[in-house]
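A sample copied in:

***
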Amino acid sequence: MTSGLFSRSRRLLLILRVAGRYRLQEFVAAESLPATGRLLLRLSPWRNSHPGMSRGERLRRALEELGPVFIKFGQLLSTRRDLLPADIADELARLQDKVPPFDETLAAEIIESALSEPVNTLFAGFEALPIASASVAQVHGATLHSGEEVVVKVLRPDIEPVIRQDLALLYTLARLVQRYLPDGRRLRPVEVVADYELTILDELDLRREAANASQLRRNFEGSDLVYVPQVHWDYTRSNVMVAERISGIPVTDMAALEARGTDLKLLAERGVEIFFTQVFRDNFFHADMHPGNIFVNATDPANPRYIAVDCAIVGSLSDADQYYLARNLLAVFQRDYRAVAELHVECGWVPPGTRVQDFESAMRAVCEPVFERPISDISFGQLLIYLFSTARRFDMEVQPALVLLQKTLLNIEGLGRQLYPQLNLWDTAQPFLERWVQERYSPQSVLRRLQRHVPSWLEQLPQVPDAVLDNLQRKHTAPGPSRQQQKQQQRVLAAQSAQRQRVARRRAAAAALAAGGLVLAVPGGWAFIAAAPVASWLLLGAALVLLWPTCNPGE
């Protein structure tokens, strides 16, 4: 325990030294620090270091120096453009998760321990030199005895204790940021670290990544849009994963794609279609679609196909969030800001007491300047960020799945515009969403959803009478309201009853006046009324007395 405490203290001192050297104290409001902290800042030997660097570059370099866990955290932060200034988010997006490989002998030992056989027995050939290396794992090439070429992904040894130690320090730093940074509370740093913790710990089990890859492969089986390599489950464990080796052109290699004569417009549009298909048709989307994880099969340049790898991070929305997101986006397309505001309240993204008029006005102020620009210049992902940032001012809760979605959309749109700058994402998105909403409420779709729930309803049906009886008994045995509460309830009910009476009387009077007006409008109507017998007037008066709303003391 003492050695662990010493290790964490030494790591914390390293973090503070790196932060000081890159002048990260400028992110902190000095007046919010205790006197000791302000004194230390004044005495810092690095007060004027790196004068030519912007604040974003200094933050990026500090994270790179602190190592893989902080690099990946910076990459996650770069997607939170609803929280960060644009200059910092742009700089953090340049972070690269590249670290030196660990010893190939150790990699072979991990594979042999996981699969219980020597590497030479498992594979017909094994490349000792890794073909890729990142913070959590590295990848080796191999050949199965069947002749099929594969890649072997190996988790770094003892990576989990290192990650957990750095996570504990990140939580400490997040609490300090929340306390001392000017916008600390708005940035919700502890919540951001919690999201990151879930993401990075999921990457420590390669079986989860393999399952994600298998699901995505099934979803796009036989599709011309994207190909996902096959996982070899017989060779996959929690720390080792074997998958089909693919060959393709990196999606950022524009020279190679152009040399092949690839249809870049079609390729860009297919990227957008893949995104919306994953989110709305499958409700299961690859949430780490940065350029390093995407290749292109340009064997047929007129019909290019994406290849997606590294499925460690995926996202999924609840049925309600999926539906409300589609409705919100359609309302934005149609500039129906009232509907946007009402949908945010209805789906619970903002508190129920939010004033719809204020929210509508804020949305209009954000969106109208954007829509005044040419449609091809409008960033769909940036618009989504603006919407979430505006909703945050109305206490919108952070939705982790929506954050992943926002990040993925920014990646896809940026990639598409790199391939084809004139890409109009809106032309693809709007008809897709309109079609999806229509299909969701088609008779066939409603019937399918009913069929999915029927077994559960039938299972619970025998328990309904008991539940009703229990509810009645609780209501019968529950203590009644106090005398003061009863009087308060009676006053409220009386006020409500009086209001109903006033409304009803106005309606009755309006109906009588309208009827009189109609009679007088008919030729000879006044003469007809004057000729009516006295008995008719008596009966009409009795009817009005009976129908006229009166106050009911029991209400």
